Amino acid sequence: MARYSHLLLILGIHFIFISSQVCNDSLVPVILVPGLGGSQLEAQLNKPTVKHSFCNSITNRFFNLWLDVKQLLPVVIDCWIDNIRLNYDDFSNHTYNQPGVKIRVSDFGNPKVVEYLDSKSWFPVEGYLNVLTKAIVDLGYTRSKNLYAAPYDFRKGPSELGNWFEELEELIENAYRNNTSSVILIGHSMGGLLIHKFLINKSQIWKDKYIKAFISLSTPFGGSMKALKVFASGDDLGVFLLRPAILREVLSTMPSMAYLLPVKKIWGDEILVTTNEKNYTLDDLEQFFIDIGNPTGWKMYLNEREYATELGPPGVEVRCFYGEGSATIKRLIYGSNGFRRSPLLEFEDGDGTASLRSLEYCKKWITQQKERVQTKVFDEIDHMGVIQDNLALESIVRAVRELSNCE
Ligand SMILES: *[C@@H]1O[C@H](CO)[C@@H](O)[C@H](O)[C@H]1NC(C)=O
Ligand SMILES: *[C@@H]1O[C@H](CO)[C@@H](O)[C@H](O)[C@H]1NC(C)=O
Ligand SMILES: *[C@@H]1O[C@H](CO)[C@@H](O)[C@H](O)[C@H]1NC(C)=O
Ligand SMILES: *[C@@H]1O[C@H](CO)[C@@H](O)[C@H](O)[C@H]1NC(C)=O
Ligand SMILES: *[C@@H]1O[C@H](CO)[C@@H](O)[C@H](O)[C@H]1NC(C)=O
Ligand SMILES: *[C@H]1O[C@H](CO)[C@@H](O)[C@H](O)[C@H]1NC(C)=O
Q1: Which atom of ligand 1 is least distant from the CA of 93?
Q2: Which of 21, 69, 131, 161 is the most exposed place for a label (fewest CB within 10 A)?
Q3: Which residues in 1-85 belong to E strands, given as ranges?
Q4: Edge-to-edge strand order for the sheet containing 41-45?
C-alpha cells in the first residue's frame, strides 16, 4: 500500500547520494509496478447529479483525480469521494464507476506517472517512486527507453485487471525487443503482488526468455491486517490529509482492499478481530462483512481470493527487500460499542503496514525453485522507507547494477 509522506517531509527532501558510476549499453530494461495508490488516475465527468452545488458535474477534459491535494480539502472532498468511489454489480461481479464518471490511467509505460502522483500540477509535491526512479536514472537509464512503469487502476483487484496483465506482457516484450535484453520487474507493495501473480501464470519458457529478475519491495505476499481495518473502521493509509473514516467510505468500495486481506496460509485460525460478542477468524469473514454492514465486501473478496492464495515460487531470479522492526497491526479489538468506535490495536513485528510473516514469505521460494532468491531485511525501515531510505535504495540500485553486469 502506498503511503504518502507528510508534505513537509517531501519539501524537506530526501537527498540521496549513491556512488553511481554510469554504466554503458549493457543496462537491462527496468519496469516499475507501483503499489496501491501509486498510479495517477484521471477522470472526466458528465454526471447526472452531484453532491453539492459547487461540485463539477461536467468537465470537457480529463483531469487529475488521484492525487490532487486541492480536491482533498474539507467539504470539497465530498465531490472527490463521489467521483472516485466504485459500485458493485451483482450480476457481472464487476465494479463500475459512478454514473457519468470516466476514469483512466494515464501514460502507461511512462515512469513519470509513478514518480509524482500530481505531476500534472504546477508544483508536484506528492512524490512516490521519484527517489527510486532518480537513483535508477543516475545509473544511466533513460525514461521510456529502458526504464518504464506499469500503472494501473489500483481500485481494482486482479479479477478485473485482465487488460493490465496483457499490457504488461506487451510492454515487457517490447522492452525486450528494443534492448535485446530480458527485463527486471520492480514492484512495490501491491505492485509486487501483481508481478508475482503475473509470473506464476506464465510459462517457464516465456520467463526464461523475457525476465531477468523480480525485485520485490515491501510486498505483503500473505496480505495485510490494514486491509481488514480499512473495512471495519477505515485507515488513513498514511495519507495525512485524509481522515480514516472518510477514506473508509472510498476504500471499502475497492476490490483491491479485499484482495489485500490476510490469507489463510499465513494467518490460519488466528483471531483477527474481537468484539464483546464474537471472535472472528478468516473462517468468519463472511459474518464479519455482514456485521460491519458491508456484505458487498464479502463478494469482492470471493472474486479476488483465488488470486491471493496462490503463493508458489515465481520461477525467476528474486531479490526480496523488506523492512522490520515497526509495530504492525495483528488484531483489532472492539469494545461494547461494536464497530462504531476505533478499535484497540494489538501489534506484531513488521514494516508498519504488513506483518513480517507476510513480507518474508519470499524466503520459502529459496528451496522451491532453482532460480536464485536473495532476501534483505532492513531494520526499522518501514513500508515506504524501502523506496525512500538511502540504505534500502543503495541495495536496490546495487541489485540493478549487478543484474546489468555493471559492476
Ligand atoms: C458472481 O458471483 C456469484 C457468487 O460468487 C456466482 O454465483 C455467479 O456465478 C457469479 N457471476 C458471474 C457472471 O460470474
Ligand atoms: C521501441 O522502439 C520503438 C521505435 O523506436 C518505439 O516506438 C517504442 O516506443 C519502443 N518501445 C519500448 C517499450 O521501448
Ligand atoms: C493466464 O491468464 C489468462 C487470463 O488472465 C488466461 O487466459 C491464461 O490461460 C493463463 N495462463 C496460464 C498459463 O495459466
Ligand atoms: C474470544 O477468544 C478469547 C481467547 O481465546 C476468549 O477468552 C474469549 O472468551 C472469546 N470471546 C468470545 C466473545 O467468544
Ligand atoms: C561496457 O560494456 C562492455 C561490453 O558490453 C563491458 O565489457 C563493460 O564491462 C561495460 N562497462 C561498464 C562500466 O558497464
Ligand atoms: C537500450 O536502451 C538504451 C537506452 O536508451 C540505449 O542506449 C541502447 O542502445 C539500447 N540497446 C539496444 C541494443 O538497442
Answers
A1: 1
A2: 21
A3: 30-33, 41-45, 63-66
A4: 63-66, 41-45, 101-105
Q: Beta strand 94-97 with 63-66: parallel, antiparallel or unpaired?
A: unpaired
Q: Cα–Cα distance between 130 and 121 in angstroms, integer?
A: 15
Assess contact for 236 and 195: CB atoms under 8 A.
Answer: no
Distance 403 CA to ligand 6 centre (A): 16
Name the 3-class secondary structure at 376: strand
Q: Is the separation of the CB atoms in 215 and 317 below 8 Å?
A: no
Give the residue numbers annotated as catalytic, written as ranges.
Answer: 189, 351, 383
> 252-284, pLDDT tens digit by residue?
999 999 999 999 999 999 999 999 999 999 999
Contact 327, 355 (CB under 8 A): no
Q: Does residue 170 line the site of ligand 2, with CB under 6 A?
A: no
For the Cβ of 298 lying below 6 angstroms from any atom of ligand 3, the answer is: no
> What is residue 127's predicted lDDT score, i.e. its pLDDT?
82
For the cut 50, the answer to whether the pLDDT of residue 45 exceeds it is yes
**At 320, phi and psi to the nearest 5?**
-115, 110
190/193 Cα distance (integer angstroms) = 5
Ligand lying closest to the C-alpha of residue 194: 3
Q: Grid coordinates representing 116?
A: 509524482
What pairing do the DSSP bridges indicate for beta strands 101-105 and 41-45? antiparallel
Report cis status (omega within 30 of 0) of the bond before 11: no
Does residue 178's CB lie within 6 angstroms of at least one atom of ligand 2? yes
**Nearest CA owner, ligand 6 atom 8:** 25
Give the predicted TM-score (pTM) of the model.
Answer: 0.91
Going by the DSSP 8-state scheme, the letter that residue 109 receives in this structure is B
- Test site for ligand 4: of 279, 284, 330, most ligand atoms within 8 A of the Cβ: 279
